[in-house]
Write a structure and sequence with these properties.
By secondary structure, the protein is mainly alpha-helical. The chain has one domain: Methane Monooxygenase Hydroxylase, Chain G, domain 1 (Up-down Bundle). It is built from seven helices and no strands. The longest helix is centred in the first third of the chain and has 34 residues. The radius of gyration is 19 Å and the shape is elongated. The relative contact order is 0.13.
């Protein structure tokens, strides 16, 4: 491995970790805005999504440049491929976070109705998954990545419960159907964030072991 190649790989590592950190902070802010009903913070998160989009483009371009110029093999090639994949998942988490933030101002018009506790449980779990998968990425920690994958099932179960809850509410509280549908939308976004965190965890495992763990192959 040449010194020039190592410098470019180190640069790519810093870029993907910087993007991951920014995505994690955006999610934290969006979920805080959701819990506090802070429309201004939600708007700021939504507007910051453009930065995540640009970071995703920059990481992809850097990774492709390394592939084209150095044609890495073995563990270095595995690292570049994993970065390209998890880069896409980070951008999608950013998009879903922005979607959640975009919905929050709508809740202001329903001040007398509380969000389902399931939403807050899902929010806490999704935030924990993103935080833990970032730590797994930094430390190349397979066990922590596996823990992230395990939590995804709990989020899926809560989303299924939310679907039943909303289905019941729109039959018994017709005047506030829009509010319950907003909740279901946020539940779906949180469930998808958990899915993308799981994808990243699987990419971390691939980087470390070289084994593809998707589709139940843990």
């Amino acid at each position: 491995m040449t010194l020039h190649f190592q410098r470019e790989v180190d640069k790519l590592k810093k870029m993907i970790l910087s993007e991951a950190t920014f995505v994690e902070e955006s999610l934290k802010k969006a979920l805080r805005a959701l819990k506090d009903g802070d429309a201004n913070l939600a708007i700021a998160v939504y507007e910051a999504d453009a930065k995540i989009d640009q970071m995703e483009i920059d990481v992809e371009e850097e990774a492709l440049k390394i592939l084209a110029l150095h044609q890495p093999v073995a563990i270095d090639l595995r690292f570049i491929i994993a970065v390209i994949k998890l880069n896409s998942d980070l951008e999608r988490i950013g998009d879903l976070t922005a979607n959640i933030a975009h919905r929050i101002p709508s809740f202001v018009s329903f001040p007398t109705i509380n969000l389902s506790g399931r939403i807050f449980k899902m929010a806490d779990l999704a935030e924990r998954m993103v935080r833990d998968v970032l730590n797994a990425l930094i430390d190349m920690n397979v066990e922590l990545a596996q823990d992230v994958c395990a939590v995804d099932e709990e989020v899926d179960a809560l989303h299924k419960e939310m679907f039943g809850y909303v289905q019941n509410k729109i039959q018994t509280d017709m005047e506030n159907i829009e509010f319950y549908l907003y909740q279901l939308g946020i539940s779906r976004h949180l469930e998808r964030i958990a899915d993308h965190a799981t994808n990243i965890a699987e990419d971390v495992m691939y980087m470390v072991s070289g084994k593809i763990s998707r589709h139940g192959g843990l």
